[in-house]
Amino acid sequence: MVEVAFTYDINQGIDEEAYKKLAKKATAMMLNADGFIELRANRNLLGSPHVRRTSVWESMEDWARFAETNEFQKVTHEFRKYVTHMEVNLWGPSPYVPEPIKPM
After folding, report:
1. Cis ω on the peptide bond leading into residue 49 (within 30° of 0)?
2. Is residue 20 a contact partner of residue 41, using CB atoms and an 8 Å limit?
3. Which of 9, 29, 82, 98 is within CB 3.0–4.6 Å of 19 for a Cys-Cys bond?
4. What span, in angstroms and rounded, lies between the C-alpha atoms of 58 and 37?
5. How many CA atoms lie within 13 A of 81 on its CB side?
6. Rounded to whole angstroms, how far apart are CA atoms 79 and 21?
7. Of 12, 4, 9, 17, whose CA–CA distance to 72 is shortest?
8. What is the pLDDT of residues 58-103, one digit of tens each?
9. Which residues contact 41 (CB under 8 A, 6 or more apart)?
10. Residue 19: its pLDDT value, please?
């Protein structure tokens, strides 16, 4: 399993409806992609970065295949009109704690 965390700040004064429409388009693309498991979106309660969108994939190969599509590249390029400080981090399971630890 691979988690892909996009973090970014939203530019001031953007067309929020256009931003939401583009985010929905990116989400719809993921929903139809092979190996996609889920998407989580969070806002930072303390400031910057403003947003973290984490998509979960069955494998690194599934994520890479999706990320390399022309459609995703176009959406990512367009997304940069609305955000700054965009960063992408890829996360895999820990060798020390490979499964979530939960209370009994």
Report:
1. yes
2. no
3. 82
4. 7
5. 12
6. 11
7. 4
8. 999 999 999 999 999 999 999 999 999 999 999 999 999 999 899 9
9. 51, 52, 53, 54
10. 96
Residue with tokens 């965009």: 86
> What is the separation, in whole angstroms, between the first and last Cα of the chain?
24
Indicate the pTM of the whole model. 0.90
CB pairs under 8 A, 24+ apart, for 33-38? Answer: 33/62, 33/65, 33/66, 34/62, 34/65, 34/66, 35/59, 35/61, 35/62, 35/63, 35/65, 35/66, 36/62, 36/66, 37/1
pLDDT of residue 94: 95
DSSP of 61-87 = HHHHHHHTSHHHHHHHHHHTTTEEEEE
| pLDDT value, residue 76 | 95
| Angle in degrees, CA 66, 56, 58, rounded to 5 | 70
CATH class of the domain defined by 2-91: alpha beta
Mean of pLDDT values over 5-14: 97
Give Cα 71 to chain centroid, integer Å.
15
